[in-house]
Amino acid sequence: MVTLAVIFPPTQPPERIGAVAAAADAAGLAELWVWEDCFKESGIATATAMLAATSRVTVGIGLLPVPLRNVALTAMEIATLARLFPGRLTAGIGHGVQDWMGQVGAKAESPMTLLREYATALSALLHGETVTAHGRYVHLDGVALDWPPGVVPPLLVGGIRPRTVSLAGELADGVIIPGGVGPEEVRASVGHLHSQRDAGRGPAGIVVFISAPADSPARDIAATVSEYAAAGATCVAVNADEDDADIERFAGFLAREVSPLVG
Question: Is the N or C terminus of the chain more exposed, i.e. has fewer CB atoms within 10 Å?
Answer without folding.
Answer: N
